[in-house]
DNA sequence: ATGAAAGCGCTAACAT
DNA sequence: ATGTTAGCGCTTTCAT
């Protein structure tokens, strides 16, 4: 920058002001400086700027597993809005491990990111409180939400889950099991809650042998489902609470040489990629993951501009995609009324 | 840091050296400094350090579409190795647009990343040469490779593609079409080359009406395939060059109410996620995307440590997953000899 | 309208 | 073994 100043016969201050438009500069000198800038192929140094301004225009994003399409979509959404606002994005993967998540946050802080988006907080919140202290960095939660007042964006869960169970009940199913996954995860807990409410509203008793919980991996789901699906006592319909769970159920069906909806109906919360093209064609609730990412970034920008804004929780509506696996007639009304 | 120095009755230099272990410090003072560090909850400022050291310990990664599982996997691999080496990762998405890609690179440079990984360079290389000037930043290409000498890691393409076509030929197919996509993309060109070589070796003439090229999107593939698949003149087998292409073909099959392998056999280069669980069960060549990401990061680290190292090109072997869509008997020998 | 200079938080060369 | 200090590249206050 000193070189530029020299070449244009001005001070570094003027060069800086030309670059940033931070104070009026006489047309002629501005042109001279711009020419020098061009000639030298000048590129600003964001580090040095950040040192002075103490804002890096960088956000940190931590996701639990970038391999899963839904996270890819969230990342995509964040990236898009970040770019639009001139922000760079740092990414870390936590492998759904609270320890790694905290470490990622610390690293981000060392790099002085302006804010952090946690796309799927580990639900084991040890050390989490510390991150939330007001003196701490702006934070937005994505997907897995906390109960306290925070900036966060997720998808509606209870209502949609209730409605797809309603949908099954309305189409004559009365023995519906839920493959709920790990109920200590808030999101999954909420989905279970929707299931419970639907049964409740229809006066169907909740049977504990129709709730498959405490299964965390696709493999565990697959193993757990086999005994449940064999024999005549099996449920007539299944709702699954996440992509991995659905995959596990499909594995079990395969193992038993069973078909959906012929042998058991199936509705999945979350969609498997390219679901359109494959059999079974699974009726699904689809989360608007890209938009969720966009909203998260916008929420963060808002907070950066106005640190004292009220914390906001955004819940986006998922889409209902009616396919064949629920075994309902094609003309059956959408449970989402759309 | 000045506060720490005060509290421990030493100079900032000593504090710095305790933190970095850059010079011997008397046990007792070290302990005193460490205590002060702890008490103050000191966190180093990587920006300031980067200013001095002129290395940020940050790498920039640009992918064309984080939404696609294969990129998620590469990102995962890079993230893992980066973390292990104490590097942070910046991510940008280029939407397969050369312009955006260049902009992402520029932004990364402004942030002074130590190196850049380009996970799928846009093949329109305008302005690309500029990025490659020796005075420029260390660069590693991922997936789409360049012909010149550069650090880059990809998967083998020609050989594996040749072998899966061999596999089809060996099992009695002699009319095999390739859905090759956009042949100006080097990777896709290579896959086509493998197809060509296989036909050549078997003395099967290459027919231009058996090469579907110049299709870029899933939708275009779907539309282009319909006329080809109708009627008795249709090919007996299809090889597809990428995930999106495979998806397009599946769409066309669906439109025509056709099945694979019953109506036409299919082998896909690249695998659709959760392919295990769905019908049709597509015989596929699977790229080790996570490892590719890991290797890319390691190559970059090597270059950073030794700027004068010879450029290295790494080609990883894909896996062959034999399923039903190729219509070959289950016991047919693996074309990859494994 | 422009310039001089301090300083952001560190590291490292040079002293002692 | 430890301390002093210049300076990384910029922004911005205070002068002129």
From TrEMBL, chains A, B:
This is LacI family DNA-binding transcriptional regulator. It comes from Phytohabitans maris. Keywords: DNA-binding, Repressor, Transcription, Transcription regulation. CDD domains: HTH_LacI, PBP1_LacI_sugar_binding-like. Residues 1-53 form the HTH lacI-type domain. InterPro entries: HTH_LacI, LacI/GalR-like_sensor, Lambda_DNA-bd_dom_sf, Peripla_BP_I. PROSITE patterns: HTH_LACI_1, HTH_LACI_2. One of its GO terms (molecular function) is DNA binding.
């Amino acid at each position: 920058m000193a070189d530029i100043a020299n070449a244009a016969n001005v001070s570094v201050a003027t060069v800086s002001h030309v670059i940033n438009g931070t104070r009026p500069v006489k047309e002629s000198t501005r042109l001279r400086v711009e020419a020098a800038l061009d000639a030298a192929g000048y590129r600003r140094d964001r580090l040095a700027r950040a040192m002075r301004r103490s804002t890096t225009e960088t956000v940190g994003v931590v996701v639990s597993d970038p391999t899963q399409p839904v996270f890819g979509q969230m990342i995509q959404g964040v990236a898009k809005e970040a770019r639009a606002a001139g922000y760079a994005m740092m990414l870390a993967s936590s492998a759904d491990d609270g320890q790694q998540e905290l470490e990622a946050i610390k690293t981000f802080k060392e790099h002085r990111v302006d804010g952090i988006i946690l796309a799927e907080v580990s639900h084991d919140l040890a050390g989490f409180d510390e991150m939330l202290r007001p003196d701490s960095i702006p934070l937005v939660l994505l997907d897995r939400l906390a109960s306290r007042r925070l900036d966060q964006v997720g998808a509606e869960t209870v209502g949609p889950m209730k409605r797809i169970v309603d949908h099954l009940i309305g189409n004559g199913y009365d023995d519906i099991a839920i493959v709920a996954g790990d109920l200590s995860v808030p999101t999954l807990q909420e989905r279970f809650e929707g299931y419970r409410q639907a049964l409740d509203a229809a006066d169907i008793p909740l049977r504990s042998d129709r709730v498959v919980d405490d299964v965390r991996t696709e493999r565990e789901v697959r193993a757990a489902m086999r005994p449940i699906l064999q024999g005549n006592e099996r449920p007539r319909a299944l709702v699954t609470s996440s992509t991995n769970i659905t995959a596990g159920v499909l594995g079990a069906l395969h193992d038993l040489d069973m078909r959906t909806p012929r042998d058991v109906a199936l509705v999945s919360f979350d969609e498997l990629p390219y679901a359109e093209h494959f059999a079974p064609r699974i009726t699904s609730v689809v989360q608007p993951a890209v938009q969720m990412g966009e909203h998260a970034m916008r929420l963060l920008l808002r907070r950066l501009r106005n640190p004292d804004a009220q914390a906001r929780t955004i819940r986006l509506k998922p889409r209902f995609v009616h396919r064949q696996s629920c075994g309902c007639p094609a003309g059956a009304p959408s449970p989402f009324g759309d």
